[in-house]
Prior knowledge:
This protein is mainly α and 235 residues long. 66% of the residues lie in helices and 0% in strands. The chain has one domain.
Amino acid sequence: MKEKNQRIWEIDALRGFLILCVIAAHALFYLSQIRRAFALPPTVAFVIHYGGMLFVVLSGLSATLGRRSFRRGLTVFAGGMALTLGSLAAASFGWMDESMIIRFGVLHLLGFVMMVYPLLKKLPSPVLLVFGLAVIAVGYWFELDNVLVRSHILFPLGLRYSSFTSGDYFPIAPHLGWFCLGIVLGRTFYAEKRTRLPGINAEQPILRFFRFCGQNSLWIFLLHLPVLGGLLLLL
């Protein structure tokens, strides 16, 4: 009999693997800022550009498996605001450039989509799929056509003003769309809320490590930025 609230190990392991890839990518990115001639490997560049998107898709999938999405969303959004305040403080002390202040990063986005999940889950999968693809298309149109507005409060939606900068930027469009696609994937492949890889021993050391990182990804993400930033200052 399946235990109540049993976690699906491959979801935790994949999240842990992604967070470690993001940390490695950020570390190499910081090194590239110290040595301008240092070229980022293609894999690192891929993680920097698309790792966040994979996190959002995985978050949508995970939302279909858990409970208390709104409460967890509040916690994650609070983590995003902590990074905003921390980056503001660092910039005010001259420890980093003001362009690196995090105004609406991945934690803000993940917190927001988790909080709206109770509304999204009421939609049938075909509607959710079409809606998600539409939001993705609109978001990339904003970016590719460099759509700018005068308002300074619409940047969470993906509508930037001319002087807008953010050290980490994950606007609602297109990323809400990726979250919706993750919900559809969760409904499709994890409808029974159990592992799809029952034949693999999830207690192997490397898988246990990835699972640990996945289960604590929020705190790892929050801590790795000041740690890397401090090392950057020392270097």
